[in-house]
Amino acid sequence: MLRYVRIDMTTKIGFLSFGHWQAVPGSQVRTGADALLQSIELAVAAEEVGADGAFVRVHHFARQLASPFPLLAAIGARTKTIEIGTAVIDMRYENPLYMAEDAAAADLISGGRLQLGVSRGSPETALDGSQSFGYLPAEGETDADLARRHTEVFRAAIAGAGVAMSNPQMTGVSQPLAIEPRSPGLPDRIWWGAGTRKTAVWTAEQGMNLMSSTLLTEDTGVPFDELQAEQIQLYRDAWKEAGHEREPRVSVSRSILPLIDDETRHYFGVRAQAESKDQVGWLDGGNARFGRSYIGEPDVIAAELAQDAAVQAADTVLVTVPNQLGVDFNARILESIVRDVKPSMG
After folding, report:
1. Which residue from 84, 60, 288 is spatially nearest to 191, judged by alpha carbons?
2. Nearest to 85 by CA among 318, 326, 346, 323
3. Cis omega before residue 252 (within 30°)?
């Protein structure tokens, strides 16, 4: 029988923004510029209220954040302590070597605070969108194979592998060349977004940290948090069996909305009852389980999260934020979570 073990460290709290923008009534984020600039300001505000991380989701062909590295570099330049990262980058779209240069540069600018989540990606707006970027699976490959192949090249590049041969006319010798710049420690800060237990085991075997969101693309009939906690335990067991030397990290995402004033009650009060349970649906060709939202008074949310098996098994919780309500609104939510919820979570 699997045991869900609480790891021995203080849980980190970060926010996760999808960076939606839309010129509709009530939206404070009406353009792409709004989404980018407010993401920077929210990271600054999150650091000020004591949050531990600022993460962004990457989507293409949609009115959401898309190219993460200029944004992460800007956040890194404006902040000092908060972790910055992605959750996640769809690796089907990426040039692994160009990404390796961008990632190293953003990490150096931030002083080594980059926590980079990558994965195969999720169902998207564009049909075969990565092909428009010039990346097609090879014969016999799936989309997942393509993403994993790109990830393998990217990880080798940031670790200093030779990926091109030098020009003897320029260097006097023929030898392998690595990408520049490189950032020490970055290879240990790559996370894979896993949607199943099987993928979590593969992630551990590869030596990557684990990201698990509010969606699992499988369902066994047990509550979401228990299925996710099982996923995490299988990951930790596989990590130990693989013999990796460092301690892995695990993050889970949650929708957490404390009702702290009239505005939060106006926007989310009526949703508390409807979204307090898991949802099961059909996604991308199979059953999927969506985790519940935590909406209510901060002390009630804290008590509920203390019973969430996956939250208790992870070291990092990424709070999905309603970014279109603006920086001030989301900063108040984060401040309440850090002050009123986090101390009682474990």
Report:
1. 84
2. 318
3. no
Which domain does 18 fall in, by range?
12-164+175-344
Closest CA to 154 of 209, 220, 221, 99: 99
**Entry pTM:** 0.94
Distance of CA 73 to the CA centre of its chain: 17
Is residue 192 within 8 Å of residue 199, measured between CB atoms?
Answer: yes
Q: What total number of domains does the chain contain? A: 1
Tokens 């989301």 sit on residue: 330
Task: State whether residue 311 is helix, strand or coil.
Answer: helix
Residue 179 phi/psi, 5-degree rounding, is -70, 155
Residue 122 falls within a domain, yes or no? yes
pLDDT, tens digit, 9 for 90 and up, residues 111-130: 999 999 999 988 788 999 99
Task: Express each pLDDT in 257-283 by its tens digit.
Answer: 999 999 999 999 988 877 888 899 887
- 179 in a domain, yes or no? yes
> Per the domain annotation, does 67 fall within a domain?
yes
Structure token pair of residue 325: 């309500």
The reply to whether 26 falls in a domain is yes
